[in-house]
Write a structure and sequence with these properties.
Length: about 270
């Protein structure tokens, strides 16, 4: 449910990650995500795991709160794993009738589970330690050079910021609507998957209506305040790199090098596969 989503929420704090420049955190998150899909050896995953643990510790965000977001993608990971195990051709491990689980399918399922989990956790670290305004400023400043090729960087950054701001608002709205529907006798828990899916209709329809109404109110408010895009706009708090940001860039570069070396020279076979 929406109330389990942690991606897009901000957790107030004064840790070193909270105080880093948003451009550094955006760069680090991008490098981390690329490394997950570019390097797939077991040793690379061990390095990524160590990096995640360090980031969670220094962020001072409760690990339980951060890991809660994985519940929302559990079904997606399960479906993806099953499709990979049964539909990937290769050496069969288990064969039942016309279905077979292959060694390559199991490896791919494990890779996808790690990648999806680490993708959510890594992105959550960035959003939990960065306000939507900081993300917008970081995106707009970091990608400012793309204006030369007529890419609307400010508009893209603004849309992403608004989308992130709407996540906690939609969570609160979902809880409010669910409480109202339950008080009227709605049941969201009992029954099979089909019945549970049908029971969500009284929840989703008012949620969509509320979301469109809020979007319309926001558009009218922006027009009333004279918003006409990013041309000529100045920043109340301009982004300026500090010493800690430069050190963080060096750490990010070191992480990328370590991931490459672990992938190139530190390959480890999965012990439970033939």
């Amino acid at each position: 449910m929406l109330r389990e989503i942690t991606l897009g929420q901000y957790y107030p704090g004064t840790s070193i990650l909270h105080r880093l420049d948003p451009r550094v955190k955006l760069t680090g998150t991008l490098v981390f995500i690329v490394s997950l899909f570019a390097f797939s050896s077991v040793s690379s995953y061990l390095a990524a795991t160590a990096a995640l643990i360090v980031m969670i510790v220094i962020s001072e965000v409760p690990p339980g709160f951060m890991l809660r977001g994985l519940r929302t993608i559990f079904l997606l990971m399960l479906i993806t794993a099953l499709f990979n195990m049964f539909l990937t051709p290769g050496d069969p491990i288990v064969k039942v009738w016309k279905l077979q689980i292959t060694r390559e399918g199991v490896e791919m399922a494990i890779h996808m589970a790690f990648r999806l989990s680490y993708l959510i956790i890594g992105s959550s670290i960035m959003t939990l330690t960065t306000t939507p305004n900081q993300l917008t400023d970081g995106l707009e400043t970091g990608l400012h050079w793309m204006n030369r090729i007529h890419v609307p960087v400010h508009e893209i950054a603004m849309m992403m910021s608004i989308a992130l701001r709407f996540i906690p608002i939609l969570m609160e709205e979902t809880n409010r609507i669910m409480s109202a529907q339950i008080s009227r006798g709605a049941d969201f828990e009992s029954g099979g998957p089909i019945r549970k899916a049908k029971s969500l209709i009284p929840l989703l329809i008012p949620l969509f209506v509320s979301a469109f109404r809020r979007a319309n109110d926001l558009a009218l408010a922006m027009e009333a305040r004279g918003y006409h895009g990013g041309d000529g706009r100045t920043k109340m708090k301009p982004l300026i790199y500090k010493k800690r940001d430069r050190v963080a860039y060096l750490i990010i570069a070191g992480y990328a090098i370590v991931m490459f070396l672990m992938w190139k020279y530190g390959k480890i076979k999965l012990p439970f596969l033939p």
